[in-house]
Amino acid sequence: MGETGKPVIEVRNLDLSYADYAVMRNLNFSVNKGEIFIVMGGSGCGKSTLLKVLIGLKEPLKGEVLYDGINFWQQDEAVQQKMMRRFGVLYQGGALWSSFTLGENIALPLQLYTSLSAGQIQEVVELKLALVGLSGYAGFYPSEISGGMCKRAALARAIALDPDIIFFDEPSAGLDPLSARMLDDLILQLKDTLGATIIVVTHELASIFSVGDNAALLDTESKSMIAIGNPKNLLANSSDPRVIRFLTRGEKTSLPAGRQGEPND
Amino acid sequence: MPAKLSFNYPQTGTLRVKLSGDWQIYASIPSENEVVAELASHQDTAQIIFDTSEVGSWDSGLVSFLFRLVRDCEHKNIQVSHQGLPQGAEKLLTLALKVHTRAMPEKSARNPFLERVADKALELYASTLSVLNFLGEITVAFGRFISGKAYFRRDDFIGIVQKCGANALWLVSLISILVGIILAFIGAIQLQLFGAQIFIADIVGIAMVRVMGAVMAAIIMAGRTGASFAAELGLMQVNEEIDAFKTLGISPVEFLVMPRVLALVIMMPLLTLYADFMGIAGGFLISASVLGLNPVEYWHHTQSAVRLSNLWIGLIHGFVFGIIIAVCGCLRGLKCERSAEGIGVATTSAVVSAITSIVVATAILTFICQVLGV
Questions:
Q1: Fewer CB within 10 Å: C terminus or N terminus of chain A?
Q2: Would you give the distance in Å from CA A198 to the centre of its chain?
Q3: Cα(B172)–Cα(B21) distance, rounded to whole angstroms?
Q4: Counting Cβ atoms within 10 Å, is residue A64 exposed (0-12), middle (13-18) or buried (19+)?
Q5: Residues of chain A in Cβ contact (below 8 Å) with chain B
Q6: Which of B137, B247, B250 to mutate to test the interface with A (most CBs of A within 10 A)?
Q7: What's the rounded Cα separation, in Å, for the pair A121 and A127?
Q8: What is the pLDDT of residue B99?
Q9: Contact present, B247 and A89 (Cβ < 8 Å)
Q10: Could you give the CA distance from residue A201 to residue A38 in angstroms, rounded to a whole number?
């Protein structure tokens, strides 16, 4: 677990379902303030379902999700919505509102939840776009820019209200290696500059090793979390062949005794 | 050369399957049942080996034959040796069997009839609850709108009004004029028998203003605007744009559904009025030009036949249909499954449910008017 800060998110005895199937049972982990926590696992293991439960879009089968000690799923809708304003979410496909320009996408939460004037909102929009390297793109529609730029614009929207907790769903999906690396760097910068707690759902090993402070590995077969810890330490010290197989892209099922695994990041 | 099978027993309990010819998927290849029949005639067989020295060309046809055979033999506890198979075929077979043995999610067996009936009843109950819940959400959103607390973009609303109003005028004009013409012709056939063709004006006027104008405009709008609402919101659902609204604490019903319902509730009575006028104009044109009626007399008859109460009834129809089309389109869009097929299903379902509801609502309103004597 992270050395600094106290737990911002605690997940206790969480069971998840997708359609009628139970996909994950008895999840337990906590995320400390200011850390980057990776939820990793193979396709279909329930990573995105877990994310939906964490961001309040899907109720779990059972169990608790606590933010600063408050059980999210036991609150009434008004309190839940207030808690959700602390979240920024970068969806897998960006999920920018297609009928809005990039500027309007970022401005909408500011118009709703702040008392800033139109001019001030415009300044904040420009700032957020500049932070993700999209200065001058405020007037563009999502359909007029590339997939990588859409992801960055969506990140600008996600950080519009300076959230405490930012969730990333498969940030590298569909991106070329350079754009993926750029997004990883942005995640690290957000952690350093905003001090935000960041949850990243991914199976991209390069991202996992380059940004993750801690990680939980979900396993489809056993429908449970099979490892938790720093990804590099997991690779170096885990004796579980499933963990080694995942973290080495299936190239190894165990590493020599006494070795210190060094991932290629 | 055609694919062939032959069998021999090099030793007791071992069946050698000799394959010869071209084993290609587009050619006729023997069934694994021939091997199964051979096994049935020699119950003591414990192992199968292959001789493929006379196999010419091969492709997936050979691999699928071997795959089915190995799976059959697994059930019979007969060992199948991969030796003697072409190297590529052996690798493909191993790969296919590896995938086969991976743990797959369990699929439940088909439930008994009564259980399926109960499941359908529960589905219907859940779907009814979901519709009522949606209507409740729209009511709450309108409550917030009236109290000035609702948030949606004025530009979006104006755009929707334009799309479902001005942009639909050509289609509404065409269909309404044609309906007016059809009503005039049908009336003429019967009324000619009594020499009372001038009453075509009454038939066309009352029918269009009281119900036909509203129904025809509604059917056009269900196919045009209702489908468009379902597709727009469905695509937003697929692209996670709706989720993005929810996580920002913005109600999709307030931001997306309410402006659409409001736009149609405003525009449908106006379109109904327009359709009434165009339908009467269609009847007038055909009566004056083809049926030889006096235009002035026709106009006077229309004026005296169509009462203000008919107009109000037509406008109420339009108002109700506007709500139905918008609710069906938006509900199906928001409930859309996250796939390309899901958008198609949502769109179709929006149109079908809107048109069905329009017909049912027309029947109910007509009955109410009958009871009230208007």
A1: C
A2: 6
A3: 68
A4: middle
A5: 21, 52, 55-57, 81-82, 84-85, 87, 89, 91-93, 95-99, 108-109, 112-113, 157, 221
A6: B247
A7: 10
A8: 59
A9: yes
A10: 6
What is the tens place of the pLDDT at every residue in A10-56? Answer: 999 999 988 777 888 999 999 999 999 999 988 888 888 999 999 99
Residue A82: pLDDT over 50 = yes
Yes or no, beta carbons of A112 and B156 under 8 Å apart: no
Distance in angstroms (rounded) separating the CA atoms of residues B320 and B265: 8
What domains does chain B contain, in order, with CATH numbers? 4-101 (3.30.750.24), 134-372 (no CATH)
Question: Helix or strand or coil: residue A56?
Answer: coil
**Closest to A197 measured CA to CA, from A52, A7, A3:** A7
Q: Determine whether B55 is exposed, middle or buried from the number of CB atoms within 10 Å of its CB (0-12, 13-18, 19+).
A: buried
Closest CA to A153 of A227, A102, A224, A84: A102
pLDDT class of A260 with cuts at 50, 70, 90: very low
Q: Which amino acid is at B347?
A: T
| B42 contacts B76 by C-beta, under 8 angstroms | no
Reduced to 3 states (helix: H, G, I; strand: E, B; else coil), residue A225 is strand
User: Two tokens at A241?
Assistant: 């062949």
Q: DSSP labels for B298-352?
A: HHHHHHHHS-HHHHHHHHHHHHHHHHHHHHHHHHHHHT--SSHHHHHHHHHHHHH
Nearest 5°: phi and psi at A9?
-120, 130
Token duo for residue A259:
């070795």
Note down pLDDT in tens along chain B; length 374 residues.
Answer: 888 999 999 988 899 999 999 988 887 888 888 998 888 888 888 999 999 999 988 988 888 899 989 988 888 888 999 888 988 888 888 888 875 444 555 555 678 888 889 989 999 999 899 999 999 999 999 999 999 888 888 888 999 999 998 999 999 999 999 999 999 999 998 898 888 889 999 999 999 999 999 999 999 999 999 999 999 999 999 999 999 999 888 889 999 999 999 999 999 999 999 999 999 999 999 999 998 899 999 999 999 999 999 999 999 999 999 999 999 999 999 999 988 899 999 999 999 999 999 999 999 999 999 999 88
- Contact between A82 and A98 under an 8 Å Cβ cutoff? The reply is no
Beta bridge partners of B19: B5
Q: How far is CA B90 from CA A86, B51, B85, in A?
A: 57, 13, 6
Put simply, the answer to whether B244 touches A89 (Cβ < 8 Å) is: yes
Give me the pLDDT at residue B169, please: 94
Q: Are B49 and B84 in contact, with CB atoms under 8 Å apart?
A: yes
* Positions of E strands within chain B: 4-11, 14-23, 47-58, 79-80
Q: At what angle do helices B258-289 and B154-164 cross, to 10 degrees?
A: 20
What is the C-alpha separation between B250 and B210, in angstroms, rounded? 41
Q: Which residues pair with A39 in a beta bridge?
A: A201, A216
Residues 6+ apart with CB under 8 A from B313: B210, B211, B365, B369, B374
Q: What is the DSSP string of A167-178?
A: EEESTTTT--HH
Pick from B151, B235, B240: which is nearest to A112 by CB? B151
Could you identify the residue written with the tokens 């337990």?
A: A28
